[in-house]
Write a structure and sequence with these properties.
This protein is of the alpha/beta class. The protein has helices at 8-28, 44-60, 75-87, 106-112, 124-131, 140-151, 171-180, 195-199, 245-248, 262-284; strands at 4-5, 34-40, 63-69, 93-96, 160-164, 184-188, 204-207, 225-228, 232-233, 239-240, 254-255. The chain folds into 2 domains: 30-114, Rossmann fold (3-Layer(aba) Sandwich), CATH 3.40.50; 140-263, Rossmann fold. The protein has a 6-stranded parallel beta sheet with strand order 1-11-8-7-5-6. Strands 3-2-4 form a 3-stranded parallel beta sheet, with helices on both faces. The structure holds NADPH dihydro-nicotinamide-adenine-dinucleotide phosphate. NADPH dihydro-nicotinamide-adenine-dinucleotide phosphate is lined by residues 141, 164-167, 169-171, 188-192, 195, 208-211, 214, 229-232, 262-263, 266.
């Protein structure tokens, strides 16, 4: 068996095409979706992610603004900036690019963003809404993965879904979204004993740990769907995933590559959340 490769790039392209039309219609009604990104310091990876977000926004017609701040700014200054954006009626989505300098409290920053502008879906209010299955801004990476699975009509209801990694931005919300779709969900993490016992039982295996090629075919049930969230830089300077793609593709039914797998979907769902925020604000007026 050779797995079908799920191209996040292709699925993202199709969704963005539809978004472009939607944004054009919104603009005709006087609604101009706008995303403001705050970028602190000079971490090259953060710069590259923010550039990608700006490019994608422009591609679909979403207005984008990047506020670049020195890594020496105080937490108070940053919170004040966020509060200004919360009040700014032209801004629909606010995103503070993580990670933050050590002297700034990440949770405080996340909780300062108004929930109705939290297009990353990290605010505890939005996480809580997701938990109880209410309509909300879903965290972009898990939302993108769910959309990828649905784009291939992969059966989620009743499946055994195993998530390796339990971060607040990927693993935990991913499990919750799949539970909402009636999967039986198992979370694994660095303290999990005998990881293989769990992963080999997965119909859907989602790996988000940040360890190059930690998962080879010996961890995978034949016919499984394997989603690789990991982004690791190799010694040669290229990007690779947490899954040994060449090995696992021999036995999986579906697999995502790195790059061009989950990454483009994460950005696409950020755009979806920004459009949603703009529409919601218009409905409230
Ligand atoms: P974190 O570092 O926040 O979390 C990693 C998780 O993996 C932790 O829960 C940790 O367990 C677990 N873990 C680490 N090593 C092992 C192991 N050997 N076996 C089992 N579990 C392990 O990472 P993120 O969730 O933020 O990101 C994960 C990866 O996904 C990274 O490579 C990141 O770059 C990538 N990423 C990609 C995105 C995209 O759009 N493509 C978006 C976001 C992230 P414990 O909790 O016990 O410490």
């Amino acid at each position: 068996m050779t797995a079908e490769i799920i191209s996040g790039l292709e699925v993202a392209k199709e969704i963005r095409q539809t978004m472009k039309t939607e944004v054009t219609t919104l603009k005709e009604q006087g609604i101009v979706p706008k995303l403001t990104v705050i970028l602190i310091g000079d971490d090259p990876a953060s710069h590259s992610y923010v550039n990608g977000k700006e490019k994608a926004s422009n591609e679909v017609g979403i207005e984008s603004e990047i506020i670049r701040l020195e890594s020496t700014i105080t937490e108070e200054f940053l919170l004040e900036k966020i509060n200004e954006l919360n009040k700014n009626e032209n801004v629909n989505g606010i995103l503070v690019q993580l990670p933050l300098p050590e002297h700034i409290n990440e949770q405080k920053v996340i909780e300062t963003i108004a929930p109705e502008k939290d297009v990353d879906g990290f605010h505890p209010i939005n996480i809580g809404r997701m938990m109880v299955g209410q309509d909300t801004f879903l965290p972009c990476t898990p939302y993108g993965i769910l959309t990828l699975l649905q784009s291939k009509d992969i059966t989620i209801s009743g499946s055994n879904a195993v998530i390796v990694g339990r971060s607040n931005i990927v693993g935990k919300p991913m499990g919750q979204l799949l539970l909402n779709e009636n999967a039986t969900v198992t979370y694994c993490h660095s303290r999990t004993k005998d990881l293989k016992v769990h992963t080999k039982n997965a119909d859907i295996l989602i790996v988000a740990i940040g360890k190059e090629h930690a998962i080879d075919a010996s961890y995978v049930k034949p016919g499984a769907t394997v989603i690789d969230v990991g982004v690791n830089r190799t010694n040669e300077g290229t990007l690779t995933g947490d899954v040994d793609f060449e090995d696992v593709k021999k036995i999986a039914a579906y697999i995502t590559p790195v790059p061009r797998g989950v990454g483009p979907m994460t950005i696409t769902m950020l755009l979806a959340n920004t459009i949603k925020a703009a529409k919601r604000r218009n409905e409230r007026e």
